[in-house]
């Protein structure tokens, strides 16, 4: 912290905060910009305009100054370094006092080194192992069964005291790992600050992903925890945006494609000074032009049926609809995309497996056929058809194939007509 030399004087602002303190104490250890920096910038702009500015009120600044002073004591930052930190940590969304306080609090937590991460990960894995034992006991005992500590400890080969001690130790390690990486959640949430979700909600969803990452982290693979947790946090944030930011939910993988197309269009416009054509987007995204058109239609914002049409406001969108009982464009687009993706997945199977599934589930004509009927078509027994069907379904459950269709069925779009 700054110290006055003998004989020097300080101009004090209201509330007991000196201007020198304000200029050196607004950046905490994590680089979060406090009210003082904004106040100082405002005074500097006023002076540049030739207007004499009033000293900023220090009711909030004095409290921030006291906390910041404790955090930067003994740390000497150059003005350029402080400016860089301020720029890096600047939050481009409106923040309340509670959010600003939260950002300061998580910034004061000491980061973990590699050895500390490994030690915490071992204790967390032990916690997850013990909890899995209890889960297995509950499943074996049936619905509504209550597992006591004695039964739990016996299954784990521990005394009740040892069990409770290891549970407390594991939970403490999990909490420490999460607290030390909350800044990572904020940094990822900032990248999606322009979405339709509030910054606070983005952080909350990111914390859910961070918790999941802490529970799944395997230190033996040699990765840093932040590298591993980044994926879980980003997945939680993007999934929440996909689920909650639109009136009509889109599958997560489709939402990510829409985001990539949007970024590509912005970059193209900056370089060429015009919007890209569908063909140019298709070439950049390595997709067909027809699919790009379908995706862009699905990404369009819904229009209210009560919206007025024309200048006299006498008619609404609903009045212009020919068939109000027909399927909406978003459902038609969703089915079209589903059928196309389903066709691509089926093409990864052998011809016989593909034909058996088409006949078994009526993918072509909507008529489901029995094993005996399909066996007659291929001149084999019904048991052979059952084996082919089972093998094909096992292949479809593989992550490389299953991930393409999983979001359709989780969102209720998996019915083919």
TrEMBL record:
Tree of life domain: Eukaryota
PROSITE patterns on file: SIGMA70_1, SIGMA70_2
Keywords from the UniProt entry: DNA-binding, Sigma factor, Transcription, Transcription regulation
UniProt xrefs under Pfam families: Sigma70_r1_2, Sigma70_r2, Sigma70_r3, Sigma70_r4
Annotated GO biological process: DNA-templated transcription initiation
Residue ranges occupied by any RNA polymerase sigma-70 domain in the UniProt entry: 201-214, 370-396
Region (Disordered): 1-28
One GO MF term attached to the UniProt entry: sigma factor activity
Family membership noted in the UniProt record: Belongs to the sigma-70 factor family.
PANTHER family: RNA POLYMERASE SIGMA FACTOR RPO, RNA POLYMERASE SIGMA FACTOR SIGD, CHLOROPLASTIC
Protein name (database record): RNA polymerase sigma-70 domain-containing protein
Protein's organism: Ostreococcus mediterraneus
């Amino acid at each position: 912290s700054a110290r006055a030399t003998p004989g020097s004087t300080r101009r004090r602002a209201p509330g007991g905060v000196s201007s020198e303190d304000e200029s050196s104490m607004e950046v905490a250890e994590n680089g979060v910009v406090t009210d003082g920096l904004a106040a100082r910038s405002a005074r500097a702009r006023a002076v540049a305009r030739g207007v004499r500015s009033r000293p900023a009120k220090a009711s909030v600044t004095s409290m921030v100054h006291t906390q910041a002073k404790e955090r930067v004591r003994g740390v000497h930052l150059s003005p350029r370094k402080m400016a860089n930190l301020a720029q890096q940590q600047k939050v481009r969304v409106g923040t309340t006092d509670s959010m600003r306080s939260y950002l300061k609090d998580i910034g004061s937590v000491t980061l973990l080194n590699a050895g500390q991460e490994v030690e915490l990960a071992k204790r967390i894995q032990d916690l997850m192992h013990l909890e899995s034992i209890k889960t297995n006991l509950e499943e074996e005992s049936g619905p509504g069964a209550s597992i006591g500590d004695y039964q739990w400890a016996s299954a784990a080969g521990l005394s009740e005291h040892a069990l409770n001690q290891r549970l407390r130790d594991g939970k403490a390690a999990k909490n420490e790992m999460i607290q030390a990486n909350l800044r990572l959640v904020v940094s990822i949430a900032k990248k999606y600050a322009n979405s339709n979700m509030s910054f606070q909600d983005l952080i909350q969803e990111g914390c859910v992903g961070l918790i999941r990452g802490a529970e799944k982290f395997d230190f033996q693979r040699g990765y840093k925890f932040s590298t591993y947790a980044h994926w879980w946090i980003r997945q939680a944030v993007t999934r929440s945006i996909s689920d909650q930011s639109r009136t009509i939910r889109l599958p997560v993988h489709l939402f990510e494609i829409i985001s990539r197309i949007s970024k590509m269009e912005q970059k193209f416009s900056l370089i060429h000074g015009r919007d890209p054509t569908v063909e140019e987007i298709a070439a950049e995204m390595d997709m067909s032009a027809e699919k790009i058109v379908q995706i862009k239609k699905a990404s369009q914002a819904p229009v209210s049926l009560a919206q007025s049409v024309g200048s006299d406001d006498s008619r609404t969108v609903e009045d212009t609809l020919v068939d109000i009982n027909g399927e909406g464009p978003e459902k038609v687009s969703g089915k079209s995309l589903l059928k196309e993706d389903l066709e691509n997945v089926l093409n990864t199977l052998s011809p016989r497996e593909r034909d058996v599934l088409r006949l078994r589930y009526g993918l072509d004509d909507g008529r489901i056929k029995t094993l005996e009927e399909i066996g007659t078509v291929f001149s084999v027994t019904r048991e052979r058809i059952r084996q082919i069907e089972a093998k094909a379904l096992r292949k479809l459950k593989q992550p490389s194939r299953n991930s393409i269709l999983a979001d359709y069925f989780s969102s209720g779009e998996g019915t083919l007509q």
